[in-house]
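FORM 12-B: Structure-to-Sequence Request
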């Protein structure tokens, strides 16, 4: 059985999420579905597609740090 990376699961979960209409609040379900699909494919000997990194930052499960608004100073 081949190793399934977190990045592989993340990409598949994103595809599952898109295929289901991009609903909010069901990320764990999509993650588990993706993991199960990848495990089944690995057990069946289906080779994994090698893809380059996604250009979409929304795929990552990292918090988005927005820059703090700049304070304006008033000159008299």
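FORM 12-B RESPONSE
SEQUENCE OUT:
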């Amino acid at each position: 059985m081949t190793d399934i990376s977190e990045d592989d699961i993340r990409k598949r979960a994103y595809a599952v999420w898109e295929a289901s209409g991009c609903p909010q609040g069901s990320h764990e379900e999509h993650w588990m579905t993706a993991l199960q699909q990848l495990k089944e494919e690995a057990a069946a000997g289906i080779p994994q597609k090698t893809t380059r990194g996604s250009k979409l930052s929304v795929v990552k499960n990292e918090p988005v740090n927005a820059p703090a608004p700049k304070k304006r100073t008033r000159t008299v």
